[in-house]
Design brief:
Blueprint lengths: L9 H25 L3 H10 L25 H13 L6 H5 L16 E8 L4 E8 L5 E8 L5 E6 L4 E3 L10 E11 L2 E3 L6 E5 L2
Antiparallel strand pairs: 1-2, 2-5, 3-4, 3-6, 6-7, 6-8
Helix pairs in contact: 1-3
Length: 202
């Protein structure tokens, strides 16, 4: 295919964009036929918490299916993006207009975000800690058991991290609480996260 050039006649560019929109429309229609929101539904089923039952997605009703397109919709879309970017007249302003260059997140993450849950270990139940680093080196993890004193557990840079300590009483469940801080350049920093409290059993 020829190189994308913003200076080419508008009719040529409109033709390319129209074809791309048609291909995206077909892909979106197929995904919605599978489930109304596939990514969100799968995420809730896979990692959601609570006692709510999982609702079966309702299959959407379309007035008319889109025109069929050849296989390789995403491949052609990615190739088009690359052709636009290597065009002689391309600049960031051109990239922002169709969404080729997205808006960068400016969110400031003051405290670590994490989840604590139990799972079966090799011999006993263990705690599984999943966290998001947000460009930090890692997280500084503290815990306490049965409302005792807080104690340092580890510096974790890879998730998940597992707390496989034996129970204080091998025959009784215990309450474990966790809180995290950021870890950067060999130093804990920032405020502690909200405490997560989980009961773990023998």
């Amino acid at each position: 295919m020829s190189e994308w050039d913003p200076k080419k006649p508008m009719s040529r560019k409109i033709c390319v964009i129209t074809g791309t929109r048609a291909e995206y429309g077909l892909l979106r229609w197929i995904m919605q036929c599978i489930t109304d929101d596939p990514e969100l539904t799968l995420q809730i089923i896979a990692t959601g918490t609570g006692n709510d039952l999982v609702l079966v997605p309702v299959r959407p009703v379309f007035n008319q299916p889109p025109a069929v397109r050849p296989l390789g919709v995403l491949t052609r879309l990615f190739n088009l993006v690359q052709r636009i970017k290597i065009g002689a007249a391309y600049d960031p302003a051109i990239g922002h207009d169709p969404g080729i260059i997205g808006s960068q997140s400016t969110a400031v993450h003051l405290i670590p975000e994490f989840t604590a849950s139990t799972e079966c270990g090799s011999t006993i139940e263990r705690m599984k800690i999943i966290f998001t680093k947000h460009s930090h080196d890692g997280v500084y993890i503290e815990s306490r058991r049965n409302n005792g004193a807080w104690e340092f557990l580890t510096i974790a840079s890879v998730k998940p991290w597992y707390d496989e300590r034996p129970l204080l009483d091998p025959n009784a469940p215990e309450i474990r609480e966790y809180r995290l801080r950021w870890w950067d350049k060999d130093e804990a920093n920032g405020e502690f996260s909200p405490v997560q409290r989980v009961t773990i059993g023998p």
